Amino acid sequence: MWAEILCGFLAFRVLRRFFFPRDEMEIETIDSSALFAVASRLEKLYGGKAFVGLRIPDADTGLRQSIDMVLVTKGEAVVICVKNLSGFVSMSADGSWICEGDGRQKSEILPDPVAETRRWVSILESYFEQRGVALPEGYLSWKVLLPNPKFRTIHSNYFPSEVIMYDQWIHLKPEPKSMFSGWIKSAWLGGKKEMQDSMDQKLNFVLNTAPMWDRLELNGNNIVLGEFLEFKVKKEDMQALREIRRSKVSCILIQKIRRIGFVPSRFRVLYSTRDYRNEGASASEWKEVTVGSSTMVVFQMEYSSKVRKVKISSIVSLSLSA
């Protein structure tokens, strides 16, 4: 009997994988959460500030280019591409990556992440110049990170040294001078601490005020990047949310209000007014309204044309880019 139950369960898992693939939002959540986990570890290892989910204007295309992360530390700025890949990965002659295994029915071709990250560096250098920060050639270094423990390589020696494999990632340790290189920066800045501090401050200011994806944090410490579109609410709650607009609000927190008996659930929506003079908001700047459990957030995910309606009961917070 137990053998039949076990066989039935395993058969269900197999059929589910083939005929009911993972929801796109689930995949986006896993990838975005991996991105923030990488940022947190890099900040602990090297200090500084990791800017995640940037949307930098590209002068060549006239569009905004999504950039996973830029880490700014003392005298160092590193552009980082995070690929949360699993299965066996090899590199083809044209630089594209071939992903196989881990439940895939066929091989997947991934455009060259190395070339993609190099292009990010070029776009960022142009953007910094437009914002009045001139960087010498080579000031921005770059890396491609592969943090998934299920990642495996075929002929790993084919990959450039800028690609950090999983086994390298878990053993990564802070270096005495800088994260990856740094000698170009030190030479250009003449080794003067004041000049290095000034450059770090400029980079931090530009990136802190650069366009970013909105950030939706869900229950279970899951994060999704994308664009907040609107609230879907009942007519009686529309008035309560009228002040929550991107131009006025930077962060929204959701708290469930405890009720006794069979009273319908209500949720407390705390939101901070946007202050362009300072980063963040003080306690006195938070405002509060309440809405019903039927309220939803309409959210378009990064790298996707799909629009999702997320129940307010599933949401922890929502950060809105300026």
UniProtKB/TrEMBL annotation:
PROSITE patterns linked to this entry: NERD
InterPro entries assigned to the protein according to its UniProt record, in alphabetical order: NERD
The organism's place on the tree of life at top rank: Eukaryota
Domain spans labelled NERD: 30-147
Matches recorded under Pfam families: NERD
The name this protein goes by in its record: NERD domain-containing protein
Organism: Cucumis sativus
